[in-house]
Amino acid sequence: MAIARTILFVYGTLRRGERNHRLLAGQEFIGEAVTAPRYRVFDLGPHPGLARDEQNGLAVHGELFAVGECCLAELDDFEEVPGPFVREPIEIDGYEQVWAYYMNTPVPEGAKSGHRWPLPPG
Q: pTM to 2 decimals?
């Protein structure tokens, strides 16, 4: 019997080479990915936050992982779901169902945003 896996889009500190990637240890890296141009990554200081932006959205860059149920539960705890973040579907071409962590709070006033994190200088 196959183990249930969830395809997860990560765009911040969970990516390879970032400080919280250890939380994805043992999970299958699928590859780099770009979302449909309907989202925006906000710089929240030590980490980013993802939000939908239907009017001025960007194609956000990140990575896809196939994550087991136990790891997904641990990630939900880490991201404080439901709380400051929620896990909801995100649109990525070629994939039927992909999930991502979104900000569940208003965007801080003056927060810079872009298509990837960390935001490019300037």
A: 0.94
